[in-house]
TrEMBL record:
Organism domain of life: Bacteria
Family the UniProt entry places it in: Belongs to the peptidase C40 family.
Domain NlpC/P60: 194-325
Signal peptide: none
Gene Ontology MF annotations: cysteine-type peptidase activity
InterPro entries reported for this sequence: NLP_P60_dom (IPR000064), Papain-like_cys_pep_sf (IPR038765), PG_Endopeptidase_C40 (IPR051794)
Organism: Saccharopolyspora montiporae
Gene Ontology biological process terms in this record: proteolysis
Keyword vocabulary terms for this entry: Hydrolase, Protease, Thiol protease
This protein's record includes keyword Transferase: no
Protein name, UniProt field: C40 family peptidase
This protein's record includes keyword Transferase: no
């Protein structure tokens, strides 16, 4: 009973933080009727630090590059692919050719994506035709298992099969900017009518707090029993945002890293052996005021408690739904791709 009372108080405080109008939207929203926000803003945000880099990089594109980016997006829309697919293709094209339809490249590599006729990508005429190239890129992308959950640069590498896989991440902020309503390419996200990140975080918190008292079962992800990552995964799923299972994977791929000191309700808080980000063993949902809701361990129940630090609390949280840029990935100098 004490835990339930604390949970209600915490949620009431969180509702006050959001404001009456947002709370009304939060309580009125129904998870079943929402479109998947993961393929919109949550999947578009840059993983880099330094706000404005995406906009400045986009502003440096010439007319041909802007036209190609526009066509990548239009074809993605025609094929009813989510915005993340458009972003992946733009990052690949920017990395391989600076979004130019090149008639030269490493060995017989040609076109926007430096596709090689000798490796089965098509004829010379095909791999220098913009329409063919973009469709071919999407054809290969959608056959990659789990591409929607990958970091965009990782998915680009899976299509391109480059010997230098990290370089595709460099253009993530720019590609995210181009597929946003703030970008230079018009009318692209189709996500304007979806709830804001603060509303989504509120829905995740509401779900998790609503399951206070549910038993811990290792590996479980609801509906009545949970382990730590199962609770956080299902909480965000209730808000229409898909994040992976398992605490380590949620830390690596669950969203945007944010300093712990800047944590907001709904963020994922992590503990790792030796405070090592590669040794994550527990995750909780932040509620504000140094409190979390989590599924502790076998024999215990989902509870609201003060956030603790026994020497394992990690200095960054992960924000699954965010509109702002966060830590910039180190860029790897580009060099010739192999396929």
């Amino acid at each position: 009973m004490r835990k339930l009372v604390v949970a209600v108080v915490v949620f009431a405080g969180f509702a006050g933080l959001l404001g009456v109008g947002v709370l009304t939207a939060l309580l009125g929203a129904t998870g079943g009727s929402q479109r998947d926000w993961t393929s919109c803003a949550a999947g578009l945000g840059p993983w880099g630090e330094g706000a404005g880099r995406g906009e400045s990089d986009a502003a440096s594109l010439d007319g041909e590059s802007v036209d190609i980016a526009q066509r990548i997006i239009e074809i993605g829309q025609e094929r009813q692919l989510p915005p993340r697919a458009w972003q992946i293709a733009i990052q690949a094209g920017k990395t391989e050719s600076n979004l130019a339809n090149l008639t030269h490249g490493d060995r017989d590599s040609l076109g926007i994506f430096q596709m090689r006729p000798s490796m089965g990508w098509g004829t010379v005429a095909q791999v220098t035709d913009v329409e063919y190239q973009v469709h071919k890129f999407y054809d290969v992308l959608v056959e990659i298992p789990g591409w929607e959950e990958m970091r965009p640069g990782t998915a680009a590498q899976r299509v391109e099969r480059s010997a230098f896989p990290m370089r595709y991440h460099e253009w993530e902020p720019m590609a995210a900017h181009l597929v946003s309503t703030e970008g230079d390419v018009e009318g692209i996200t189709g996500c304007d009518d979806l709830p804001s990140p603060s509303v989504l975080a509120g829905q995740a918190v509401e779900y998790a707090v609503g399951n206070v008292g549910a038993p811990y079962v290792w590996g479980a992800a609801g509906p009545d029993v949970f382990d730590c990552s199962g609770l956080t995964q299902q909480a965000w799923k209730a808000a229409g945002v898909e994040i992976p299972k398992y605490s380590q994977t949620q830390y690596d791929e669950g969203g945007v890293p944010v300093p712990l000191a800047e944590a907001q309700p709904g963020d994922l808080v992590f503990w790792g052996y030796g405070r090592d980000p590669q040794a994550v063993h527990h995750v909780a949902l932040y509620l504000g005021d140094d409190e979390v809701v989590h599924a502790p361990q076998p024999g215990e129940e989902v509870e609201v408690t003060e956030m603790w630090d026994s020497g394992e609390l990690l200095p960054h949280v992960i924000r699954p739904a965010d509109e702002a840029p966060a830590a910039e990935a180190a860029a790897v100098p580009a060099s010739g791709a192999g396929r």
